[in-house]
Amino acid sequence: MQPTVGIDFGTSFAYTAVMDGPSPATVPTAEGGKALPALVAVAQNGRRLVGSPAQNVALTNAENTVRGVKRLLGHRASSGAARTIAAMVPFRMARAGEDEVFIKLPGWNARPVEIGAMILAEQRQQATQYLDQQVYEAVLSVPSYFTAAQTAAMIEAARLAGFRDVSTIEDPVAAARAYGHIDRPGTTVAVYHLGGGTFEVSLLSIGAVATEVVDTAGDAFLGGETIDDSIMEWFVSRCRVQYGVDLTHNTLALQSLRPAVQLAKRRLSEREEAEIVLPFTKGGQTRDLRFTLDRAELEQMTRPLLKRTLEITSGMLRRAGILVDGISAVLLVGGQTRMPLVQHEVGRFFGRAPSLAPAPEEVIALGACMGASAGGGDDELELAYY
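User: That's the sequence. What structure does it adopt?
Assistant: Structure tokens below.
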């Protein structure tokens, strides 16, 4: 029997899961972590980089590094979404052919599906190494708001990556499966998904035969990276005042600062203070620029984002005609839901403590893998041009 992998191709990170005996397991990346940065870059020597190597050059090679390509999948060049993205990203986009989007990189005018295929090929390679056998079958998780064209583009990218048998499962359905709620018919479940670059909230109706997404809403440009940006602005401002150092246009320093900021943010989910240290060289002398960020300051930066997510959630509930009292469970998905403030505010909004998995960023990939094992993936979408 051929192994099937579950894939969560996220805006910021991608996760891969396989059945390891009776239980699903998240596949490690080449660097030993679980999260594959969803980036592709063309280096100065023309080499094409995927994942962490691409992330390492993201700031110093910004116009040749593609992040968030998931947002472009399935969109025409003339669409409002494509125009919005083009105004926000450092890489260059062009229109060609039948209103197709192209990303202009050195020696390569890449379609978004080709960028996606490189990331998915890396995930396939990870699974192949982990299982010590070739992998050709995949269940892709897709956001509930994806159109048929966006889902078709995701499947095309998977096939370009070498997957032959591809099916899909909606993100919130995969999450509910991972949390064990698929086996609780007659309930209504809310899935609050706050990832690195995207927010999505969905309502699920769990039936005896099928699970239906009642409604969904979100913001494709709202997530943990928004908080990272706020912390970086805080650090740069403090450096200017205390050290007389302006890091605003120092791309090398900012590239080193971002991982330090992300580490501090993660640590503040478990402690009250975290130090951010940035080695800085000027005039041949190196010194550490350091500040301590406490949880209260981080929460103050986070509250505007949380307020926006809960406004979106409230609007979805009104549209669906469902009161919070009618919701049986609230499931948290995405790495940003590790933050205690997120858990508290979501719990206060719904009037019940939300469920939080040990690794909420991995549950969609795990659920997609479990869906494959149980035959729970959606029917494969056949494309007319295949």
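Residues 375-386 have pLDDT under 50 and may be disordered.
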